[in-house]
Each structure stands twice: as C-alpha cells, then as structure tokens.
Design a protein that fits this description.
Layout (H helix, E strand, L loop, with lengths): L2 H24 L20 E5 L10 H11 L3 E3 L2 H9 L4 H10 L3 E2 L13 H20 L4 E4 L12 H18 L2 E5 L10 H10 L7 E2 L2 H7 L16 E4 L26 H10 L5 E4 L4 H4 L3 H18 L10
Parallel strand pairs: 1-2, 1-8, 2-3, 4-5, 5-6, 7-8
Helix pairs in contact: 5-6, 6-7, 9-11
C-alpha cells in the first residue's frame, strides 16, 4: 500500500467519523435512545494490563511486580524502561525475566520510554533515535512488541511543525519495523505539542505509515482538552493499547495533574461511553491501568492491583449497556 493511498484511506475514515458526529449533533434535541444494537467488538477479547507507575511508590523490583500482577489476574504488564535497566544492572538477565513473564501467563503489551525522537535539533534527535533503538531492544528481549513514543523534548515547544513531526515519526516507525517493536504516538495532555488527539492523528496520518498507531489516555485526553466524542473518528486498529484511569470532577482542567488520577469508576470520566465508542470502532486491544496517585503508593500492592482491575472490568461491562454520543 502506498503512502498516498494510506493517507487517503485514513482521511476518508476520519471524514466518515466527522459525518457521524454531525448527524449526532443534528439529533441532539431528540429523546435519548436506549443502548444501540450496533455490533460491538467482543468484550471478551479485551485484555487488561498494569502500567507499573501505578505501584511505583512501593519500590518493588520488576521481577516481583510480575508475580503480583499475575496473581491479581491481569493479562499483561507495561513496565518502564528504567525498571528493565535496573533489572539488568542488578545482575539479572532479561532471558530469565522473559521466561518468568511467560510462565506466569503474562505478556508485555507495551513499555514506557522517553527517547527524544521528535525534537528539532538534529544532533539531539539523532541521539534520541539511538536511545529509542536501545529501549526497543530491551523491550524485544522481554517479548514485547510496542513502546510509547511521547513528545519528549518538545513538551514546552509551542511551534512544533506537525508535518516535520510526521516525517520524524515515519523514521522511528521504520526503526521499529527493523526491531520488531512499534512506537505508539502518545498523547500528553500537559504538553504544548501533541496534547490533543487531533494533533496526534495528524502526525500519524501524514507519516504515511499504514501501521501507525496512537496511545491515548483518558486523563491526558481530558487534560489536553480533547472532546471524547472525537474518538468516533479513530479506527479501532489505530489504538492497540489505551491507558485507562479516571479523574475527579472538582479539580479544574488547567490545574489537574498526574497525581490526581483515580481508579476507573472513582471519578467523573464517561468511561462506559468512551469504551463503547472504542469497541464500536473495532477496538479489541489492551486497557492498561496507569495511575500516579501517591495515596495508592501508601496502600498494600494487592489492594491497589485488585481495585484497579475491578474498576477496568466494571467499565468495560458497563460499555455494553450504553450508546455512543453520535447515537443519542
């Protein structure tokens, strides 16, 4: 498939999604309907993952986190690159850790790294790409196939050229194909670049990569001001992993921070509708619990893991009993 065809097909998908939103808006004065009969992706195919930031404060080694995550009933784990590096620095092997992960019935669906692949400075960007290669190699050695690609280094930049960003994403996508690890464009709501879903989708589309994918996060979408209804425009295959969390309703968007994230269901995010829309789009991937709440770091790990998983599962179950924004 050529780059031009890929961009056209993706843009057509977005156009159909936009049309759906316009129809939904025209019907906003009609009585709300019951849950639609539209076919949804099977909820049983959705997998549940633990992003290890959720239990960062307990300061456990990665190998121990693997056991706890498996015991709690998760399907996968999403470690941070510094944890993997610490495992190696402690004299342990990644081959043994990979085996342990597999033996416990888990997979490594994603990993969190901070390579500066997107910056304007040529030397720093080249250095960032090399750093990303090393990170990808660590992930690959654990059997992982994806890594987060946030806009590190451009967080405070207000004039990032999105077309240039797309070209740079195409470069790391090619690196990822060679390494067997896909970089996922991550939305950072607090950033001054790639803070909104529309910006991340523009970069993905203009990269011309048919296998481009994005990594949204409920908290970051809210923080960056993205209207959750815009998820209707994103094909399910473009989102393979989504960070799931919730946020309280009494903290303004401009001051809410990572530390304010709460368990799914303990906040005001419209999780059932969000998940419904994703499933309607064909999403059947991974929900990864990513929290940074210091109060949870003071709780027993098993309690945090259990509550987090239950919250995600309840949100997915609730998504089968609602309709989408465009159908009301």
């Amino acid at each position: 498939m050529s780059s031009a065809v890929t961009r056209r097909d993706l843009l057509q998908t977005l156009a159909w999604g936009t049309a759906g939103l316009m129809v939904g808006s025209s019907l906003e004065n009609r009585p709300a309907r019951a849950a639609t009969s539209a076919k949804l992706a099977d909820a049983s195919s959705i997998r549940y993952c633990l992003n290890t930031s959720t239990i960062r404060g307990q300061k456990l080694p990665l190998w121990q986190e693997v056991d706890l995550v498996a015991d709690a009933g998760y399907d996968a784990i999403e470690p941070w690159i510094n944890e993997i590096q610490a495992h190696v620095a402690d004299g342990k092997t990644l081959a043994d850790l990979k085996k342990k992960i597999a033996d416990r019935g888990l997979t490594v669906e994603s990993a969190i790294g901070f390579a500066a692949w997107i910056v304007d400075d040529d030397a720093k960007r080249a250095e960032g790409v090399e750093s990303l290669k090393r990170d990808m190699d660590l992930v690959r050695q654990l059997g992982g196939t994806r890594i987060a690609a946030p806009p590190v280094g451009a967080t405070n930049q207000t004039d990032l050229n999105l077309q240039r960003a797309a070209e740079r994403y195409a470069v790391i996508m090619e690196v990822g194909r060679e390494m067997g690890v896909t970089p996922q464009l991550e939305v950072w709501g607090f950033s001054k670049s790639l803070s909104r879903l529309s910006e991340v989708m523009q970069v993905a589309i203009e990269s011309g990569c048919p296998d481009a994918c994005v990594l949204p996060d409920v908290y970051h979408l809210f923080k960056g001001g993205t209207d959750f209804r815009s998820l209707a425009m994103v094909p399910g295959s473009v989102i393979q992993v989504m960070h799931l969390n919730d946020y309280p309703g009494d903290i303004p968007r401009d001051t809410i921070a990572d530390k304010d994230r709460v368990y799914p269901g303990d906040g005001v995010a419209p999780l059932a509708k969000i998940i419904y829309q994703l499933r309607k789009n064909g999403f059947d991937g991974v929900f990864s619990l990513e929290l940074f709440n210091p109060s949870y770091w003071e709780r027993p790990v098993t309690e945090v893991l259990t509550k987090g998983l239950a919250g995600m599962q309840a949100a997915v179950a609730a998504s089968s009993a609602v309709s989408g924004w465009t159908e009301e």
